[in-house]
């Protein structure tokens, strides 16, 4: 790759890859993380040949290497650290795991401060949702033109066996307290062309129907109403409200995604996986649900580190390990996942169902001048959603007493989805926002994802990204 530094981080003794190693440029906020196979890619755009890279890994000695030395070899070997037992005795102070968790919670606001800032990020998402053959949408009645039983059931047969969503993006994320904005820099997608073909067919077959719904939003006399059981709602009737509608998609080179959707997913990852505000961090916020066990003290980036393993009691969900600075009680790394047999959100009500079958997270923090900040998040979820309901869509005309029904379609749905989601978020750089800087940032309506057929680091022109794993490199966009 032209203007970039790439390599692989390995154990010096076993020569095995070290996944998720931290790589940073000395005296700067620039850096990256190695992938699950130890490979990394780092843009050299803002790096001088005289700069030095730092390589850190939990339980290993921090290693320094000059940028210019990568021309000789792309391999970086880290050595397991030898712990000074006297230092361990001084720092351990006979604290229990539960006491350390209490100190983490108490010192969290000081160690992990919230501030207004701009974060340059690399975002990765790979989501698979199989569509089983036994999923059905049955038309019980319809007097809408072009919405007959044969048309609807014919479209159902055209759906793919599996929906996939593969998105990579470099973006700028601005936050000011609870407000945030997202500005894309570059984005690619390996989603299937079959989905765009299906969208074209849907537009051709049902375009008039959806266009009529949109027109009704500006009509004071005509409206659409959706009903399922005792629940009913009107289509939005405010023509001045920004619905975030996409631009016309007559572009064979890009997919267009509402920016609010991408903004929502980035915010979700930062809050639900990277913050004490998250319910996922109940092993810190609800210690009575967990048992804690102290493992040996280790080292990360020159700091002595407590390793606190946790397992759930009856009401807990997660098992994993918390890595905590012995000096400040700051969180340096988190690894957690649902313990065997644990699930959550098991909701089955009025024909709707949802369950979270598994969650898994890894969060790595980096030390800055003001505290410790999220550097990397890897989140995986497997959930099940189901619908077994009758739905009615009605087009109505307002009248003085009883509104007149113009058209109606009744549908019977029996659908089940298994959703497998995998996200990665890497903070490439960060800087504090000055007063009023947030207000002048303009968030665009859509993000344009450039279509590519396969993933490789050379897709990105001199950018720091997470190097794709062998599994993702093999994945190609299907025609």
Commentary on this structure:
With 479 residues, the protein is α+β, with helices and mostly antiparallel strands. It folds into 2 domains: 4-82, Immunoglobulin-like, CATH 2.60.40.1120; 117-474, no CATH class. 17% of the residues lie in helices and 45% in strands. It is built from 8 helices and 23 strands. The chain has helices at residues 85-92, 97-111, 149-157, 193-216, 259-272, 282-285, 437-440, 470-474, and strands at 4-11, 22-25, 31-33, 39-43, 52-56, 63-66, 75-78, 117-130, 136-142, 162-176, 179-189, 222-228, 231-234, 254-258, 290-300, 303-312, 318-325, 331-338, 344-349, 352-367, 372-397, 404-432, 446-451. The strands form 3 sheets. The protein has a 16-stranded mixed beta sheet that branches. It is globular and about 80 Å long. Residues 237-250 have low confidence and may be disordered. Pfam families: CarbopepD_reg_2. This is Carboxypeptidase-like regulatory domain-containing protein. InterPro entries: CarboxyPept-like_regulatory.
Topology, element by element:
Elements: E1 4-11, E2 22-25, E3 31-33, E4 39-43, E5 52-56, E6 63-66, E7 75-78, H1 85-92, H2 97-111, E8 117-130, E9 136-142, H3 149-157, E10 162-176, E11 179-189, H4 193-216, E12 222-228, E13 231-234, E14 254-258, H5 259-272, H6 282-285, E15 290-300, E16 303-312, E17 318-325, E18 331-338, E19 344-349, E20 352-367, E21 372-397, E22 404-432, H7 437-440, E23 446-451, H8 470-474
Parallel strand pairs: 1-7, 11-23
Antiparallel strand pairs: 1-4, 2-3, 2-5, 5-6, 8-10, 8-22, 9-22, 10-11, 12-13, 12-21, 14-23, 15-16, 16-17, 17-18, 18-20, 19-20, 20-21, 21-22
């Amino acid at each position: 790759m032209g203007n970039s530094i790439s390599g692989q981080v390995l154990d010096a003794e076993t020569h095995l890859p070290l996944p998720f190693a931290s790589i940073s440029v000395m005296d700067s906020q620039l850096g990256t993380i190695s992938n699950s196979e130890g490979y990394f890619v780092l843009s050299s755009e803002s790096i001088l040949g005289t700069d030095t890279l730092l390589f850190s890994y939990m339980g290993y000695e921090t290693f320094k290497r000059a940028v210019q030395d990568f021309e000789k070899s792309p391999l970086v070997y880290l050595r397991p650290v030898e712990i000074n037992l006297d230092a361990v005795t001084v720092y351990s102070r006979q604290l229990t795991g539960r006491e350390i968790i209490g100190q983490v919670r108490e010192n969290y606001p000081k160690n992990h401060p919230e501030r207004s800032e701009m974060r340059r990020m690399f975002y990765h998402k790979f989501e698979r949702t199989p569509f089983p053959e036994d999923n059905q949408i049955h038309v019980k009645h319809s007097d809408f033109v072009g919405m007959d039983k044969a048309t609807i059931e014919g479209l159902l047969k055209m759906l793919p066996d599996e929906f996939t969503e593969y998105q990579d993006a470099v973006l700028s994320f601005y936050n000011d307290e609870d407000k945030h904005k997202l500005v894309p820099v570059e984005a690619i997608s390996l989603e299937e062309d079959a989905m765009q073909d299906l969208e074209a067919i849907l537009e051709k077959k049902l375009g008039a129907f959806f266009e009529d719904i949109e027109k009704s939003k500006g009509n004071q006399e005509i409206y659409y109403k959706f009903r399922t059981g005792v629940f009913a709602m009107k289509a939005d009737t405010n023509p001045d409200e920004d619905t975030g509608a996409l631009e016309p998609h007559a572009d064979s080179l890009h997919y267009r995604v509402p920016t609010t959707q991408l903004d929502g997913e980035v915010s979700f990852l930062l809050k639900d996986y990277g913050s004490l505000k998250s319910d996922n961090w109940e092993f810190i916020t609800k210690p009575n649900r967990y048992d804690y066990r102290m493992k040996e003290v280790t080292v990360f980036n020159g700091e002595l580190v407590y390793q606190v393993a946790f397992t759930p009691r009856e009401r807990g969900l997660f098992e994993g390990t918390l890595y905590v600075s012995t000096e400040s009680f700051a969180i340096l790394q988190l690894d957690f996942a649902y313990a065997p047999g644990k699930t959550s959100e098991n909701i089955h009500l009025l024909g709707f169902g949802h369950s979270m079958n598994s969650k898994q997270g890894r969060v790595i923090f980096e030390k800055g001048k003001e505290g410790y900040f999220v550097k990397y998040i890897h989140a995986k979820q497997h959930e099940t959603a189901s619908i077994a309901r009758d739905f009615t869509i009605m087009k109505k005309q307002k009248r003085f007493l009883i509104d007149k029904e113009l058209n109606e379609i009744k549908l019977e749905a029996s659908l089940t989805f298994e959703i497998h989601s995998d996200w990665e978020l890497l903070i490439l750089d960060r800087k504090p926002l000055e007063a009023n800087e947030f207000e002048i940032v303009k968030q665009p309506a859509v993000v344009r994802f450039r279509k590519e057929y396969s993933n490789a680091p050379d897709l990105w022109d001199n950018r720091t990204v997470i190097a794709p794993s062998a599994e993702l490199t093999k994945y190609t966009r299907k025609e």
